[in-house]
Write a structure and sequence with these properties.
Elements: H1 9-19, E1 33-39, H2 43-59, E2 63-69, H3 73-82, E3 89-93, H4 97-102, H5 110-115, H6 125-129, E4 132-133, E5 136-137, E6 140-146, E7 148-152, H7 153-158, H8 170-180, E8 182-183, E9 189-194, H9 226-242, H10 244-252, E10 269-274, H11 278-285, E11 292-295, E12 309-317, H12 325-335, H13 338-347, H14 359-364, H15 370-377, E13 382-384, H16 391-406, H17 412-447
Parallel strand pairs: 1-2, 1-3, 9-10, 12-13
Antiparallel strand pairs: 3-12, 4-5, 6-12, 7-10, 7-11, 8-9
Helix pairs in contact: 1-3, 2-13, 9-10, 9-17, 16-17
Length: about 450
Amino acid sequence: MRQPFRLAPLAAVAVLLLAGFVPAQGADNPGKITVEFWDKWSGFEADAMQSVVDDFNKAQDKIFVRRLNVSRIEQKMMLATAGRVPPDIVNLWASNLTSYVQNNALLPLDKLAREAGVDESAYIPMFWQLCHQEGFLWALPLTPSVTALHWNKKMFREAGLDPEKPPRTLEELEEFNNILTKREPDGSLKQVGHLVQEPGWWMRDMTHLFGGSVWDGGSKLLLDEQPSRDFFAWIATYPQRFGGDAMNRLRGAFGNFASPQNPFFQGRVAMIMQGVWMDNFIRQYASPDFEYGVAPFPIAGAPAEAPATIADTDILVIPAGATHPREAMEFMAYVQTQPAMEKLCLAQKKFTPLREVSPDFIRNHPHPYIRTFIDLANSPNARPILALPTLTEYSNDLNNYVNLLMLGKITTDEARQTMQERQQKALDKKTARWNRAKAKLLAGWRSSL
């Protein structure tokens, strides 16, 4: 099948050296096929994955999986695939899929997964959906995530709010925000209840809080639709109430996310949108007496019958041109079994993408709110993370225009309309390129099933 671009042999070697790749030596594991696995995790998350790899390597005598930590894995995987020297398995994010599929960088997994006994019925629907593009299965899920409201109970208590009752609607959240925000004698902000930009990782998905999306899933951006208008109008209330310069100075004093100076731990921001991993950082960096709660993030209007959340997942993929796709799938299918998946997710202190969860998994899980995240993942109001083919450009533009809006240098309509024009042009360009290649690629992928 067509490759988007080619690398000269020397350039391909350079890619492998940058990744820290060491060519497989048959003498290392005589009689076994070596499967090269590029993994993005580090620290205790990498240790958890390595433990599952070790279990697989001991459980059979035909395949040896060699896991390698790779930084900047998205770029290196694309370069290695274009250079026709890819690994056999890569650990990525679901938001990467659109770009990789449209660049013909992945192997469709439908046939391999079917032969390995991997079936849709085993998964929470959202995470199975996230592994699909253009009607094909491209990935299998690993540790998933959904967003939720995290709040500082001490700050609630000190402000006269019930620490066990978080806001249920976006309107209540802003009422709490006003109550929780405090100023220094000179008028500067000492703390705030909530800032959209802290941490701001899901701003591109926040139109979901207003009942919509910024993309129709095809060729059209929807920044002129009412949910996007409502999102930008919500953003504009922040500088009106708290002052753009004052918020900018407060944010400038925030410490690093992965540190004791995280503003949520320091009592500078009382409510944030975060994922299941936040408990890991709280345990590592917050004070021992830090109190927090987790609940569905509020939406605009009446309280939702089904809680809203934004879903994402880590994924395993097989790059196009991988040397050992069947052996790679054998390992990937092993990871999808309940014992292996629960071991991985328990060690990483996350929940699993599988429908079935053992009683021991819940009972032994260190996260005090793990059931909340599992319920959110199963909510009919869960929505997939934005997977635009122009995701990087869109996210960068959004951050820039929100900053300008917060500082009062642009109106909501100017920000939204300028973004719509700029990003629609970028999407049109990507769409046109995809449409030129689509028919041929689809035919090639179908022929492999």
